[in-house]
Amino acid sequence: MCSTDSLDGPFGGSVTVGGLRRTLNFGDSSNGRGTTIMPRDVDPYAHNHHKVIQRAVASSINSKNLKPKLGKRNYRTISDVPTRVLDAPDVLDDYYLNLISWSKDNVLAVALGPSVYLWDASTEEITHVLTVPGEQSYISSVSWCTIPGSTKYLAIGTSNKTIQLWDAETVRKVRNLGEHRGRVSSLTWNDSKKWLTSGSRDSIIFQHDVRCSDHVVAKYTGHAREVCGLSWDEEGHSLASGGNDNMLCIWDAAMSSRNSSSRSSQGSSLAISPRFTLRDHKAAVKALGWCPFKRGLLASGGGTADRSIKFWNTVSGKVTRSVNTGSQVCSLVWSNRTRELCSAHGYSENQLIVWDYVTMTRMQELKSHVGRVLNMEMSPNGSTVASIGADDTLRFWDVFRPPPKSRRRYKS
C-alpha cells in the first residue's frame, strides 16, 4: 500500500539540494533576429549562433506562403515565418530524445546538453534549473506534470538512468526515481491515475506513483529496443509507446491498476504486455499524437526509412490511413480548435507541415529551420507551436491562432 503520511507535499519525499536560480540574458527581439538563451558571463558571439539565426530568419522572410489547391474547402492563411527565434546552443542532435515541454502555466522547459532551462512565455524570464555532473552526462527528456494542482512539477530524464522531479517555483529537487538500466529518453503523465510514465533505452516502460516511496506501480515489457515516444490518451485509459524497434504498442491503464492492487502482497510489480503490438512502420516510431476530437484515433510517425504518418483505430488495432510525408517524422501535435495536424520533420526537408485532417492536404510548409526539427510542443492556449532544431534554435509559430473577429458595420 502507498502511504503518504510522512511525505512532504503532493509528490512526497522532499530532498533539499539548494535552490539554484540564475537569471540569463534575454536579448531584444525587436530587430527580428534571434534572442539568446545563455548565461550573462558568456559572450554570445563566441558561439556564432547569431549567424545561424540571421540566415534562417532571412530565408523565412524571403519565402512565399504555400498556396494549396483549395477544391471545395476553404483554407485559412498560415504564415511561414516564425514569430520568435531563440538561440539554443548545445542542443543534442539525437532523434530519440525529447528535449522540450510546455507547461499548463505557460512555461517552456528546454534541455540543452547537460542543462535544463525554463522560459516563461508570459514574462520572458529565463531560469536555469540544473546541470547534471559528469563530462558524458546529458538531459535526455523533460515533461511537465499535467495533473491539476501540481503543474509546477517538472520531470527530468537523464543519461545516468535516473529521473529527477523538480519544483519549478522554488527551483528545488523534490526526489530521484531510479529503476531504469539505460537513459530515460521519454516521459509523460497520466492525469486520471496521477502517474508519471517513463521509457528508456533499456526497452522498459515504468509507471510511477511519485507520491509513494515505493513508486513503481507497473512495469510494461513489449519493446525490444529504446522507447523514444510515449503518449496517454485524454481520458488516461490507453497509452501509446513507440520504439527504435519500429514498433508501436498500445497499453491498457486498467491492467496497471489491477497490478498495483496486487503488488503489495507480492512485493514487486508484475510485467504487463501490450494490448496491441503494431509493426506497420519501417523505422523507429517517436512521434505520437492522440486526436482530441475523435476518441480512439491515434497518429504516429516513422523515422527516415519510413517517413509516413499513420492513423490508427486503437480499438481494433487497424490502420485507417497512411500518408507518405517524404521526410523523417519527429513530432506530431493536433489542434482541437482547427481540427488540423502539425508534423515536425528531420531528414531531408527539416520542416514543419500543417495538414488539413479531413483531406490530408498540406496547408502550409514551414521551412525556417536549417537543421532537423527534433521536437515540437503546443502552447497551453492551443495557438502556438514551439520547435527545437539541430540548428541550435528554438522557433515559435502561430499556426493555430484563430482569425481576428470581423467588425460589424451598422447602418445609421
Automatic annotation (TrEMBL):
Annotated source species: Grammatophora oceanica
Matches recorded under Pfam families: WD40_CDC20-Fz (PF24807)
Keyword Nuclease: no
SMART domains linked to this entry: WD40 (SM00320)
Domain CDC20/Fizzy WD40: 86-397
Alphabetical keyword list: Cell cycle, Cell division, Mitosis, Repeat, WD repeat
GO cellular component: anaphase-promoting complex
Family as reported in the entry's similarity comment: Belongs to the WD repeat CDC20/Fizzy family.
Biological process annotations from GO: anaphase-promoting complex-dependent catabolic process; cell division; positive regulation of anaphase-promoting complex-dependent catabolic process
Stated name of the protein: CDC20/Fizzy WD40 domain-containing protein
Start and stop residues of the WD repeats: 220-261, 366-399
Classification via PANTHER family: CELL DIVISION CYCLE 20 CDC20 FIZZY -RELATED, FI02843P
Keyword Cell cycle: yes
GO molecular function: anaphase-promoting complex binding; ubiquitin ligase activator activity
PROSITE patterns assigned: WD_REPEATS_1, WD_REPEATS_2, WD_REPEATS_REGION
